[in-house]
Design a protein that fits this description.
There is one protein chain. The protein is α+β, with helices and mostly antiparallel strands. It folds into 2 domains: 83 residues, no CATH class; 170 residues, Histidine kinase-like ATPase, C-terminal domain (Heat Shock Protein 90, 2-Layer Sandwich), CATH 3.30.565.10. The chain is 62% helix and 13% strand. The strands form 2 sheets. A 5-stranded mixed β-sheet has the order 2-4-5-7-6, covered by helices on one side. A two-stranded antiparallel ribbon has the order 1-3.
């Protein structure tokens, strides 16, 4: 708040005061009051009005400037009610009371939503654990009754389990700090566990896995890392086969002698970069910058009709919260490479 803004705000009152001064002088002159007395009265009125506006200006200026400065210095703007003091003028007290009431109402609403969100999260986690029983029972039935039909059912069960896992990790992703522990882990073990989980579909689809230089020690949570690797590997498998419209030309004959996924590490300074590289359909330039957006399926998702747009979004979100870096490079019909950067920082690390 500056003097120009204040004058602009009070311009009507200043005009009214000026008119009153003028009519007072005219009235006193008509009453044949001595000119010196008129001058004295006008000066007193002017001094009194000026002192009022000066006091009013500095009082409000102090309050509003402190209010704006406090607001600018806060990361969480809704805490402004905690840092301002109640002013001694009416307009400021009204504003102060409004801020206090709205802040209280907002805190009550947040508390209600937090409780509901916690209850929903607990329900999802309970549901996920409960649904595993009928899935395990279905797999047992499939094993005891092998046939083309049960094989197809088993493929659908794999998809169901992946979607269930996405739902579970999605509900936990907002409170990941309470559900992970950074430890010294073997990257090779995480990769082997992920490959083993997808072994059946890799064999059925004839996809070759090449692993090189992955016997590394990194610092992360193995459960979350395996989830991230599984989402990336699942995408590589899902988009490995070219659609029929592409197979009509010679692109895949030149570049896809065999479906292959390469998993290898590169050491850069003190960081370890894990690369998952495939020679699948790849991602077009128009989509590559949006693949980590929530719900984005892109052209490939529409062609194959299998994408939820959640997998890579979760990978990005979890990597950020775990302090990892993630990057994707791709060219249409030439494959995709997803890189995960593990910074080596041994401070505050728990060892198994």
């Amino acid at each position: 708040m500056n003097i120009k803004e204040y004058i602009k705000e009070k311009i009507v009152f200043l005009i009214i005061n000026s008119i009153i001064f003028l009519f007072t002088g005219i009235l006193l002159k008509a009453l044949k009051v001595d000119i010196y007395a008129i001058f004295f009265v006008e000066v007193l009125n002017f001094i009194g009005s000026s002192l009022f506006y000066i006091f009013d200006y500095f009082t409000k200026r102090k309050f509003y400037n402190n209010l704006l400065q406090g607001l600018n210095n806060l990361d969480k703007k809704y805490l402004i009610s905690e840092v301002i003091e109640e002013p001694n003028f009416l307009e400021g007290r009204i504003l102060y009371e409004v801020i206090q009431e709205t802040d209280k109402a907002m805190n009550d609403e947040i508390s209600t939503l937090t409780i509901k969100n916690s209850e929903y999260k607990d329900y999802i986690e309970l549901w996920v654990h409960e649904i595993k029983t009928p899935i395990a029972s279905s797999r047992l039935t499939i094993e005891n009754n092998p046939s083309p039909i049960t094989k197809s059912i088993e493929e659908d069960l794999d998809k169901v389990e992946n979607y269930i896992e996405q739902a579970l990790f999605y509900t936990r992703s907002n409170n990941i700090e309470k559900d992970y522990m950074i430890r010294e882990i073997s990257l090779k073990n995480c990769i082997n566990a992920t490959i083993k989980r997808n072994a059946r579909v890799l064999i059925e689809k004839g996809i070759k896995i090449e692993i090189d230089n992955v016997d590394k020690t990194v610092y992360a949570d193995s459960k979350w890392v395996e989830f991230i690797l599984n989402q990336i590997l699942s995408n590589s498998i899902k988009y490995m086969k070219f659609p029929k419209s592409v197979r009509k030309n010679s692109i895949d004959k030149e570049n896809k002698k065999q479906d292959t996924i390469k998993i290898y590490c590169i050491e850069k300074a003190e960081d370890i970069i894990l690369n998952i590289e495939d020679n699948g359909i790849g991602i077009g330039e128009s989509s590559i910058g949006k693949v980590f957006e929530k719900g984005y399926t892109g052209e490939n998702g529409r062609i194959f009709g299998k994408s939820t747009g959640i997998g890579l979004y979760l990978c990005k979100n979890l990597c950020e919260k775990l302090g990892l870096g993630i990057k994707i490079r791709s060219k249409a019909y030439k494959g995709t490479t997803v890189s995960i950067l593990f910074p080596i920082n041994k401070m505050f690390i728990l060892k198994d």
